[in-house]
Amino acid sequence: MKIYDRVTKTYEEIEQYGAGKLEFLYNNPFGRLFLRLAVSSFVSGIYGKRNSSKRSAKKIPGFIKEQNIDMNDFEDREYVSFNDFFTRKIRPGKRPVDMDDKALISPADSKLLVYKIDSDTKLFVKGRDYTAGEILGDEQEADAFKNGYALVFRLCVNDYHRYCYTDSGSVIKSRKIKGKLHTVSPVSKDHKIYKENSREVYILKTDNFGTVAYVAVGAMLVGKMVDSGAKVFEKGQEKGYFEPGGSTVIIFVNNVSIDEDIMEQSINGIETKVRYGEGIGIAL
């Protein structure tokens, strides 16, 4: 997969973690027999428990090397399990937050694609038609985002897996939607993953962008999505984290101008590399 690095203004190729296994599950007739089990919460639960054991800590050094993770960005301490390492915290100052009142910030280290929502609340994500209501689980709530944007932040296994609030404000309502746990990588393109997958939906009242929908999407082998439970929050405040397995945050927002370089890449179907706290747009 090709992604755009907005810092160096260059493109880089990234490899899908576990690509061979995912290809087998999704595109091999025999593998598809196991897919139903693989996307279940039962399998993810077992995976999560294994990664919480002390024995799982022995995977950490190899994972750091294989995924080229810069540990200078993170806490310098002993990790007692792979889960403990995967949910590691950043060192102070390593993810500065753009505190300009009008700046919309990225909620996570991730790969970002931006989609325009039309007047019928429809959007076209990775070859699949969705309505905003299908993703949110409520068609009426989707009306607030007509002609706005859906920002899809895809986290890979080597990303920092904690995520934050993109503006200050308060939670209006929240709900959990049970579902499957498909991978969020492109190999699952034949499935409407953002409609089928388990997710947590939060409707927020923000200071600078009005009503915003914040959706945390579960994915294959994600042991758990852990939310802070905050009802009132500040911009850049940690909202939650994903346990092992890449996953996705989707932000529905209106009243914003997304940065030109991100929009240009998104129009061409190319993800842009962004970081937790980085400015990605400006309030209108």
Describe how the helices and strands are arranged.
Layout: E1 2-5, E2 10-13, H1 19-27, H2 32-38, H3 41-50, H4 60-67, H5 82-86, E3 103-105, E4 110-116, E5 122-125, E6 128-131, H6 132-136, H7 139-142, E7 149-154, E8 162-164, E9 169-177, H8 193-196, E10 199-206, E11 210-217, E12 225-227, E13 232-233, E14 238-242, E15 248-253, E16 256-258, H9 260-267, E17 271-274, E18 279-283
Parallel strand pairs: 1-17
Antiparallel strand pairs: 1-2, 3-18, 4-7, 4-17, 5-6, 7-15, 8-14, 9-10, 9-13, 10-11, 11-15, 12-14, 16-18
Helix pairs in contact: 1-2
Verbal overview:
The structure is a single chain. By secondary structure, this protein is of the alpha+beta class. The chain has helices spanning 19-27, 32-38, 41-50, 60-67, 82-86, 132-136, 139-142, 193-196, 260-267; strands at residues 2-5, 10-13, 103-105, 110-116, 122-125, 128-131, 149-154, 162-164, 169-177, 199-206, 210-217, 225-227, 232-233, 238-242, 248-253, 256-258, 271-274, 279-283. The protein has a 10-stranded mixed β-sheet with strand order 2-1-17-4-7-15-11-10-9-13. A 3-stranded antiparallel β-sheet has the order 3-18-16. It has a 3-stranded antiparallel β-sheet with strand order 8-14-12, with no helix packed on it. Helix 1 (19-27) crosses helix 2 (32-38). The mean pLDDT is 88.
Stretches where pLDDT falls below 50 for ≥5 residues? none
Termini separation comes to 33 Å
What Rg, in angstroms, do the CA atoms define?
18 Å
Structural class: alpha+beta
Major sheet: arrangement of strands: 2-1-17-4-7-15-11-10-9-13
- Quickly count the helices: 9
Task: Compute the average pLDDT.
Answer: 88
